[in-house]
Amino acid sequence: xxxxxxxxxxxxxxxxxxxxxxxxxxxxxxxxxxxxxxxxxxxxxxxxxxxxxxxxxxxxxxxxxxxxxxxxxxxxxxxxxxxxxxxxxxxxxxxxxxxxxxxxxxxxxxxxxxxxxxxxxxxxxxxxxxxxxxxxxxxxxxxxxxxxxxxxxxxxxxxxxxxxxxxxxxxxxxxxxxxxxxxxxxxxxxxxxxxxxxxxxxxxxxxxxxxxxxxxxxxxxxxxxxxxxxxxxxxxxxxxxxxxxxxxxxxxxxxxxxxxxxxxxxxxxxxxxxxxxxxxxxxxxxxxxxxxxxxxxxxxxxxxxxxxxxxxxxxxxxxxxxxxxxxxxxxxxxxxxxxxxxxxxxxxxxxxxxxxxxxxxxxxxxxxxxxxxxxxxxxxxxxxxxxxxxxxxxxxxxxxxxxxxxxxxxxxxxxxxxxxxxxxxxxxxxxxxxxxxxxxxxxxxxxxxxxxxxxxxxxxxxxxxxxxxxxxxxxxxxxxxxxxxxxxxxxxxxxxxxxxxxxxxxxxxxxxxxxxxxxxxxxxxxxxxxxxxxxxxxxxx
Length: 541
Prior knowledge:
Layout: H1 2-26, H2 35-52, E1 55-57, E2 60-62, H3 66-76, H4 78-95, H5 99-120, H6 125-147, H7 155-209, E3 213-217, E4 223-226, H8 229-234, H9 238-241, H10 252-268, E5 272-279, E6 285-296, E7 302-311, H11 313-360, H12 364-387, E8 395-398, H13 399-416, E9 419-425, E10 431-434, H14 436-452, E11 458-466, E12 471-477, H15 505-516, E13 520-525, E14 531-538
Parallel strand pairs: 9-11
Antiparallel strand pairs: 1-2, 3-4, 3-7, 5-6, 6-7, 8-10, 11-12, 12-14, 13-14
């Protein structure tokens, strides 16, 4: 019968210990003010309930009310423990007799627990619980069966009573420690989750705001991840890139190199840097430099390749400009040296031919020689202009008047070749800061090229108007044979020309002069559709 009563007591005690722990797990874990006092009061209520479920034997009351007292002492200290014990004592006194035994036993236990706590307070709660349980066993054994001679001839009764008190303490420790362990684990997981969230937010911030392309590719060359920068750089929407092979966007000339490099990384697990061109949604090709990083799976095999690509189009252009500049510098020095050496004997030859012509009269051979010598002189002058820095004096210049004067110079030759000039000037003034003679040289060169492209005659349309950002635009459009599109990027290179007797220096000098005037010159042409040359110069403030 006692066994059933004790099991009921232990079950209810376990339930009462679990209730606050379960409630606490569902609410915010903020510190509660005066928590030990409130916990001591709750422990007292548990003690009262255990006293109400007490076992009555020959006028004595037996219960496990000291199980919560031991637990509260061990986990919350003497003050909370004494509060719990006081509640239990009060309930005990009100429920049965033998007050002297209950009071003396209570005082002995509270004194023993409080004194012992001073020595064991630095220990862990579990060790404190074990030591306090031993103290309880000693005091109970001395006071109840020995001093008060209660059931001295029934040691088994006392044994089972102490055993069930200890079982109550054990269950309480088990529940409390399980809760604390779960609480600490939950806090650790929450901190880790916050760290992961913060780290993920940082990586997302980088991935979503970088101009570099970040993609993850599997063994089948399918994209499993791509950064939002793909939409900004390549123009593709997210749904257009999902589960597609990256080779679809790579330039055909780069596909084999890309495949072999990536396949080698899956086998050799090496970092690689490669360059390839990706197709923009609008059709143009963009050059990228990519760093490929292999990512190993749990089995040690490479499962994915992370590819970080950067647009190097501007860098390539800068390299080309630097190379062109170095080439121009070398060509200029070489041209100046050659021109200087040619010019001296050329002057002597030309002088003797002119003297011979004056003495012997003009003939076809003399005129041809003088014409060719004049052409050689023109070429050497251009070479000297290219190689020797010119002192430029900039003045406020009316661009309209400069264009009109240039057309007047070329009008006789144009009339002879059945070519008409159609000048269209927008309203307003077109004043620039520049050097007249140099700009006139540019206009003459451009217009002569236009005239030479129309051997059967035609019309050259010259348009002068204001552009954007305080600049003026002079466009020259002919009706000639045009220039193949693949050759346009090479216009202006030294010694590159489409003319049978050209040197390629004319447009190069034009580019140099316009650049000195902080302007730009562009060429647009298609075969058999003529050529459009646009010169942009900043207007005077």
